[in-house]
Amino acid sequence: MAPVTAGAADGDRDEGRDRDEWRGWRAAARAALYGPGGFYRRPEGPAGHFRTSVHASPLFAGAVARLLCRVDEALGRPAVLDFVDMAAGRGELVTGVLAALPADVAARVRARAVELADRPAGLDHRIEWRTEPPERVAGLLFANEWLDNVPVDVAEVDAAGVPRLVLVREDGTERLGDPVAGDGARWLARWWPLGAEEGLRAEIGLPRDRAWAAAAGTLARGLAVAVDYAHTAGARPPFGTLTGFREGRETTPVPDGSCDITAHVALDACAAARPLPGTLLLSQRDALRSLGLTGGRPPLALASADPAGYVRALADASQAAELTAPGGLGGFGWLVQPVGIPDVLTG
Fold first, then answer.
1. 149: Cβ–Cβ under 8 A, 6 or more apart, which residues?
2. For the segment 64-112, what is each residue's pLDDT rounded down to a tens digit?
3. Contact (Cβ atoms closer than 8 angstroms) between residue 230 and residue 329
4. Which CATH number is 47-149+209-237+264-338 given?
5. Helix (H, G, I), strand (E, B) or coil at 212
6. How do residues 293-303 score in pLDDT, each as one tens digit?
7. How far apart are CA 315 and CA 86, in angstroms?
8. For the chain, what are the domain ranges?
């Protein structure tokens, strides 16, 4: 198991909590990620440990800005246009979106960053920093890699073919607990039915369904988008996806505050938690291509006519290719739900 790092020293842990206590993964991950001294409250932020689409290239924020402009047009260019950045990290996406917007649109945008960590020093004064999404949003609510960090319980099939809750200690040691029952059992039966083979595992995504329904439910008119590692019915991984990340590398998930703890998202279940006409499930590759990012190389003729422009275009093409790569960032799932507007992404 991974050792405790200096950033998760004894003083940072929940005071009085027994390190040998057995808990479900949901409770353990919640404390490790969001408790006092938790991973997401550390000063370096998520960018210190893993690279999201936001960190990979400013082209991603530019694409989200174009999506916001499309929502603006669909809403009739209102006097106030909301942009809500869920799980804003250190404000990288919302800052990039504001910078990429045309001046006339940026002047009407009310930007909100939703994040449990403290407001970063020097953040643009136009950005409101809050711990909960606002109500009656009219614009775009965008959740990039948020749902994968909404903690969930893990189920594993025992030798008798019964799905049981997986319990974990702070050092990452696991054992099986009680059989999955109630709402969790019903969720598994509908969205991730497990066979009788011993060792099969699943993450019980019900907390994510509820979190998404609540966040997207704040939208009065506009578009709600969730972007994440994802899977859908018919292609669930047989042994689950729970894992950890530390300093840019995947590692064993240990709920001691030393690493990120994440699992892929059943985006189809999230969509059903708030059923809306016009809901789309598509890959990031397809979504970004519809927003103008193709990854295609610039024409060679540009190299002679404008050498500096060709170099810039080539760099953009390389970054766009990374964002849309099918086996990488392009394979992320997008859940897109409009409220009171037509399809502005693929229509």
1. 33, 40, 87, 260, 261, 262
2. 999 999 999 999 999 999 999 999 999 999 999 999 999 999 999 999 9
3. no
4. 3.40.50.12710
5. helix
6. 876 666 666 66
7. 29
8. 47-149+209-237+264-338
